[in-house]
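User: ok so my PI wants both of these folded by tonight, can you help

Assistant: No problem, let's get them done. Here's the first:
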Amino acid sequence: MEKKDIYEHLAKIYLDASSKKKKKRIRDPRVIRNFVLMAVSALLVTSFFTFNLIRNKINSRFEVALYLQNEAVKINFNFDPAKKEVYDIKLNELNLSRFKTLSFMARKTVYTENINLKVEFTTRFHEKSEIYVKNIPCNWQEYKLPLSDFKGIMNWSDMSGLSFTVEEWNAQGKKGVVYIDNLKFIR
């Protein structure tokens, strides 16, 4: 084969290849828009479920709580002139509808006497409900009272007060001290 034949052969191959250029596909903008919308919606749905899964795992490991007192409360009762001793906490229309439990620690100082503690909630509309905690021990004990056990309250969104009461007829002795600590609402 001569040089001329080789050049012609190469030119034929080159010219045939260049004439067969690939046609550029024209894409419809609606297809691109729909693809982007589907990708964004899939990303949002996935992130929503991932966020809920992470939030549920965090909430199952940790208690979400609203603390009311940062130090122990001392209820020092002397029933000689009085018939009851009350420790009141003003809640200032606090919304407790998201919480499920009232938690606190309590103990008494006199070993030989039984003391019962009345825990009472009051709403802005003067609804009241109470629960008695029986036989407060001498060592710290944690109490978790479900808010659903306070039957007299229908709406937990406007709470005005929480009180702890030692009454004469619920204590064996005339004098004593009850301590309350770690007072909080738990979700």
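One down. Here's the second:
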Amino acid sequence: MLAALYIAEVSPAAIRGRLVSMNQLAIVLGILVSYLVGWALAGLGDGSWRWMFAVAAVPSLFFLGALFFVPESPRWLVKEGRHAEAAQVLARLGEPPSRLREIERVIAEESGSLRQLLEAGMRRPQLIGVTLAILQQVTGINTVLYYGSIIFTEQAGVRSTSAALWANVLVGVTNLVLTVIALFTIDRLGRKVLLIAAAAGAFWIYASMCAGTVWFVWKFTPETKGKNLEEIEQQWKR
């Protein structure tokens, strides 16, 4: 969340979508690598899960070290009154001097209070942001990403743990390929089209089945609460 917010604040508008997508690319690449590592370590026996958790410290340490070379966000620097540093960061990013004045104007209009979050101009983007964040989590993809190996083992007939983890790798490869496609199309096609086109595939089938169930129960299924079997039988004959 913070990484995407930071990238959005420091990115030029023309390539902001592409750079935020790079963050997503790094995430799905990390997921794929973790799947590969999990598959490779599965042969160590029952204690392999400890190694799977332990090796996650390696990229975390690299990330921690890299953060020392990342500049502060120009918006944050302006908010803290450090305008000269903000100008230096913007120049480093290739932004024109007018960008600093624009940030200063916007920051001057922000109060940072809870009341401002409830203002008319903020309610709609807030609603959209929160709703999209929720929908992206509940549409089902996280179930596949987090529990893919268990799903393959218990529901798809995969017998061995190693084979289930390998199937997980294929999921990770698919995720990576589609993220790369999005990376090269997001600034050309726009965010809205990709959001609509990407809403979770097979899960539309499940959603239509659920909608059909609701309609069928509402339209044709009678309520049997408090009725004995004889009364239910008579109800069918009416």
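The mean pLDDT is 78. The domain at 2-236 is CATH 1.20.1250.20 (Growth Hormone; Chain: A;). Good luck tonight!
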